[in-house]
Amino acid sequence: MSRPKKQRRVCFLPQYTEFHAEKGSDAVSITMAVEEYEAIRLIDYLGFTQEMCAAKMNISRGSVQQLYFDARRKLAQFLIDGLPLRIAGGDYDLCRGLIHCEMDTLGDTPGSPAAIGEEARILIPQYPAEASGQDFSDAAAFLCYETRQEKIIAMRRLPLNAKNITSLLLTLLREKINVVFSFRMGAGYRNALKEAGLLVFLGLSGQPENLVRNFLKNRLACNSIVNCRHRSTAEEDVKAHAPCARFGGCCLLKAR
C-alpha cells in the first residue's frame, strides 16, 4: 500500500502569473505549478535552505528538491527559448500566509508589527565569552524583555535552540516575541523572522538593557531595521526617522 501524499503548503499566491519574452514564440507555453513557484520563492528569493523550505511546505526534503529542480528547468526554458511562462494549477494547500501557518494549535500569531507601540517582547541573544563572532545562531542564551507603555516590566531567560529554526519559531510564537535584536544574522533567519511578522534589528551591540531603553526612546537607527522599507543611508534621513517598530514596519519621518 502506497504512502499517502502530503499536501504541499503554499503561503503566498503569485502576484504575476504570465510572462512573455519580447520576441519569443507563442507556439508552446510552459506552465509552472504554484507549489514549484513557492519553492523558488522560499529558496531563491527568501534565502531558505532546502530543509527550511521542506518544513515550511510540510513536505520531505526530497520533494522540495524535485519541485525546485522542475521550477528551475522551466525558468531556464523561458529565459533561453523565449517560451511563454504561466504560473497556474498544481496540488497544494493554501495557508494563512505566515511562517507559523503549520502551528494553528498554538493559537494566534504574535503581536503584529502595527501593535508594537504599546507592548513589546524583545528577544536579545547572549554569546559565550570565548565566542569569536556574534551571529544570532551562535548564541548561548537569550534574554526576553517585556515592555509596556515605554517601560521595562520584566526580564527573563528563554531556553531556545537557535540552530533549529522550526523549533525557534515555535518558541517565539508561544512566548509572543515580536521584536528581535542581534548583531549579525544569516539571510535565512532574517527572512523567516520577517515573514513571521517579527521586527528584526541588526548591527546592535552593547548592554541588553541599554538597547531596550534606546528602543523605547526611539533612539535606534532606522537603517538597522531589516523590515524597514526606507533605504536611504543619508545621515540626515537616518536621524529624521523613528524606529519602524512604532509604525507597523514602515518608516515614517518625524516632524522636523
Description:
By secondary structure, the protein is of the alpha/beta class. The protein is 30% helix and 17% strand. It is built from seven helices and ten strands. It has helices at residues 34-45, 50-57, 61-81, 165-175, 187-195, 208-216, 235-240; strands at residues 8-10, 18-19, 30-32, 85-87, 92-94, 119-126, 141-148, 151-158, 179-181, 199-201. The strands form three sheets. A five-stranded mixed sheet has the order 8-7-6-9-10, with helices on both faces. It has a three-stranded mixed sheet with strand order 2-4-3. The longest helix is centred in the N-terminal third of the chain and has 21 residues, at 61-81. The N and C termini lie far apart (70 Å). Residues 97-117, 229-233 and 242-256 have low confidence and may be disordered.
**Class of secondary structure makeup:** alpha/beta
SSE string, helix = H, strand = E? EEEHHHEEEEEHEHEHH
Largest sheet, in brief, is: 5 strands, mixed
Radius of gyration: 21 Å
Strand content: 15-25%
For the biggest β-sheet, the strand order reads 8-7-6-9-10
CA(first)-CA(last) distance: 70 Å
Average pLDDT over all residues: 74
Percent in helix: 25-40%
- Count the helices. How many? 7
Morphology call: elongated
Low-confidence stretches: 97-117, 229-233, 242-256
Kindly state the number of beta strands: 10
